[in-house]
């Protein structure tokens, strides 16, 4: 695959690393206006670093746009005459709908919109994607790209904001749960570093149990709750204090906020 990443900043470079580490590109162009900070990427013999978006697009098939929203329309305008049947346009830009992309370049290109999260930098992003009508033919290809950097799911575009709450804000929600568990562990006598190690690896194990078994969380809970035992006692106390309810309410509050941004 000949890949261009237009806007090699935080997210663009994480994607570049994910693709390079999994040997997913035959050539890769990385662009930004000031290329000094990324010139070292040229140590990879497949990578060309440039500030020339047009050059990158002319030499690539998969175009991943990772610029800030304010820059996106102008960049598209500047390169739209170069876009061909071969190009797959993948936008990572938050809140920038497919209709806005089509308003600049038309409906005749394969357009995919994606929402990765920050775990993409460690190859573990939950990435949601949707496409325009034409782009449906390139969904499998896009999934294959993002599955190299975690897990990818196609969703309807009208669920992109909900996905942003669950997957992008979700990173912060899970961090708080891990931090709270860490604080509990410190109170039980572990030092801070040990406590965090216990909390994060237990969290990782819990997620992997579900991923690999396909089980419902409650099935895994049943396996560790002895009648009258310590786990069910702790769990019930957490629920009396509103654990599930507060998480659900927080998710809904985030969604209300993101919807409010959209309508303003
Ligand atoms: N970070 C995340 O976790 C995340 C998750 C999901 C979606 N997103 C979306 O991804 C996009 C990028 O986020 P980010 O955090 O990676 O931002 P960022 O670090 O600011 O990266 C944007 C890059 O675009 C470059 N750029 C600006 N104008 C350009 C131009 N004309 N041509 C080529 N490159 C240009 C900038 O470099 P120069 O100034 O040197 O040109 C910068 O390196 C945003 O739209 C954001 O909504 C981010």
Automatic annotation (TrEMBL):
Instruction: Report the top EC class in one word.
Output: oxidoreductase
* InterPro entries, A to Z: 6-PGluconate_DH-like_C_sf (IPR008927), NAD(P)-bd_dom_sf (IPR036291), P5C_Rdtase_cat_N (IPR028939), P5CR_dimer (IPR029036), Pyrroline-COOH_reductase (IPR000304)
User: GO CC: one term?
Assistant: cytoplasm
Keyword annotations for this protein, in alphabetical order, are:
Amino-acid biosynthesis, Cytoplasm, NADP, Oxidoreductase, Proline biosynthesis
Pyrroline-5-carboxylate reductase catalytic N-terminal domain residues are: 2-93
Which EC number(s) are documented for this chain?
1.5.1.2
Looking at the record, the residues that make up the Pyrroline-5-carboxylate reductase dimerisation domain are 157-260
Name one process (GO BP) from the record: L-proline biosynthetic process
- Keyword set includes NADP: yes
Q: Where does NADP(+) bind?
A: 6-11, 66-69
Q: What is its pathway?
A: Amino-acid biosynthesis; L-proline biosynthesis; L-proline from L-glutamate 5-semialdehyde: step 1/1
Q: Which GO molecular function annotations are given, in alphabetical order?
A: pyrroline-5-carboxylate reductase activity
Asked whether the UniProt record includes Oxidoreductase among its keywords, one would answer yes
Q: Where is the protein localized? A: Cytoplasm
Q: Which family does it belong to?
A: Belongs to the pyrroline-5-carboxylate reductase family.
Which HAMAP family does the UniProt entry name for this protein? P5C_reductase (MF_01925)
Chain's role:
Catalyzes the reduction of 1-pyrroline-5-carboxylate (PCA) to L-proline.
What is the protein's given name? Pyrroline-5-carboxylate reductase
